[in-house]
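Task: sequence design from structure.
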């Protein structure tokens, strides 16, 4: 059975349900209702399976684990696994989160508000609106090639919160929230108790009161 994707803790899908059925058949999971989310209990049992079969014990369903677990898939599990359809928007949101981890410079008011975003890197000196502009531009979610000011994002994209990505904006500040199966993240120059000043990926929540909520179309 062909490998389809890496399944991380918190992921959701029919393939997750199929993997959990296979874990039960392999003797790693007894008396637990099988759902389509890779929750904490499933991760624990996956780690048990990996340990028993001499695999790297990380609780992540990758190619090596798939090769060992495939013989334990029943017909219904195979059907579920093969019906999995990847979600391009979720994949892009995850890539955005990964990209946000590369930003490492302090806050610079007016930084990178120059002629174009095309020559920027995550190691530039950004403010809130230029870092948001660059993030969206890098993933083809920005109109034009110039950094915009925070108030511009009050009419960005589509209104309301997105499935995975939400841009919160007002006249003074703009930041991006990611709501993924594996957890909450925000890309923000304001720490609010989480890390230094400057554009960073953060996991501590902050209030979005007083902001307009927008999202990239389809995200």
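Answer:
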């Amino acid at each position: 059975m062909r490998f389809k994707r890496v399944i991380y803790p918190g992921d959701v899908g029919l393939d997750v349900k199929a993997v959990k059925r296979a874990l039960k058949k392999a003797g790693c999971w007894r008396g637990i209702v099988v759902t389509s989310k890779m929750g904490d209990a499933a991760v624990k049992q996956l780690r048990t399976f990996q340990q028993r079969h001499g695999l790297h014990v990380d609780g992540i369903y990758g190619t090596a684990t798939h090769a060992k677990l495939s013989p334990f898939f029943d017909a219904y599990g195979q059907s579920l696994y093969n019906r999995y359809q990847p979600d391009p928007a979720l994949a892009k949101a995850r890539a955005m989160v990964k990209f946000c981890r590369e930003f490492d410079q302090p806050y610079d008011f007016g930084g990178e508000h120059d002629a174009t975003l095309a020559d920027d890197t995550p190691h530039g000196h950004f403010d809130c609106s230029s870092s948001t502009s660059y993030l969206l531009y890098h993933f083809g979610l920005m109109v034009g090639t110039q950094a915009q000011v925070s108030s511009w994002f009050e009419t960005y994209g589509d209104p309301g919160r997105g499935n995975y990505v939400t841009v919160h904006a007002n006249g003074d500040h703009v930041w991006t929230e990611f709501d993924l199966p594996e957890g909450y993240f925000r890309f923000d120059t304001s720490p609010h108790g989480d890390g230094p000043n400057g554009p960073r990926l953060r996991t501590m929540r902050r209030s979005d009161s007083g902001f307009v909520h927008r999202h990239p179309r389809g995200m």
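The first helix runs from residue 14 to 25.
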